[in-house]
Amino acid sequence: AGELWRARWGDESQAGPMTTATSIMRVQQLLITQFDAIAGRHGLTFARYEALVLLAFSRGGQLSMGRIGERLMVHPTSATNIVQRLAAQGFVERVQNPKDRRGALAVITDTGRAAMEATTADLEAARFGLGMLGQDDQQALFSLLRGVRVAAGDFVDSADRPGS
Amino acid sequence: AGELWRARWGDESQAGPMTTATSIMRVQQLLITQFDAIAGRHGLTFARYEALVLLAFSRGGQLSMGRIGERLMVHPTSATNIVQRLAAQGFVERVQNPKDRRGALAVITDTGRAAMEATTADLEAARFGLGMLGQDDQQALFSLLRGVRVAAGDFVDSADRPGS
């Protein structure tokens, strides 16, 4: 839509942020399409892969539904759907949460770990869709995005709960 | 997940692309949350707002469902859902496509244009969530993202169909 915008209002004032925001959205779309295709080779979507990564790196390979939603920054309903799909595939098991009678914990299985590792290897081989950027550009892009995240308060959560 | 990654594998080799890709996803998530909230003030989501922008800048303020899906890069089913919601709100009308008996065209209404303009004004006031970046950083970010898009062939389509 950046082009449409400029066509109407020229290159002045607000064209920058609009164009840049549109680019971020578009690159995210390009990456997620590629990542979904790669995860699909292992029976996963990128969202389900991310849930497996999260579980694999959590203590005991397990997390509550609430925490999964928080960490993946998705709606609790989406977290539940993701875990249900993974459970149906045998990639996680659902067990009762000892700290919460009504809550469930998702636990990654050996099959789940294997699917996660295989997807990771393929994503690494594809250099996470960013192989066209040299090391310096990679770093520059990360730093600029970090500035946006810091301003949006995105790092408060991880600072509060290191290793959570 | 970049932090988890580094914790396990250290800062070497593939941490760059993974961390940068994660940052792109995260910034997109931060922006879309903000844009949805802004569009929400005018009864829209950002996706429906984008559809209205697209229609507003199209010849006669109208487009086929297929073209809307293509231009917004969403599944045809999503395009249909978006237009149905907009039609229910009176922001677009659905008319028969004179070139395709079975197809429909979406036409933006005056109310739709007003909602689009009001949302645009609020997004501009919010500097599209990127007001923390100075002009140079804005430009640098856009250029880096453009490199990713060019490598992914993202500009072929618009070059083929200027003004479409």
Automatic annotation (TrEMBL), chains A, B:
InterPro entries: HTH_MarR-typ (IPR000835), MarR/SlyA-like (IPR039422), Tscrpt_reg_MarR-type_CS (IPR023187), WH-like_DNA-bd_sf (IPR036388), WH_DNA-bd_sf (IPR036390). The keyword NAD does not apply. One of its GO terms (biological process) is response to stress. GO terms for molecular function: DNA binding; DNA-binding transcription factor activity. Pfam families: MarR_2. Signal peptide: none annotated. Residues 17-150 form the HTH marR-type domain. Keywords: DNA-binding, Transcription, Transcription regulation. The keyword Membrane does not apply. PANTHER family: TRANSCRIPTIONAL REGULATOR, MARR FAMILY, TRANSCRIPTIONAL REPRESSOR MPRA. This is MarR family transcriptional regulator.
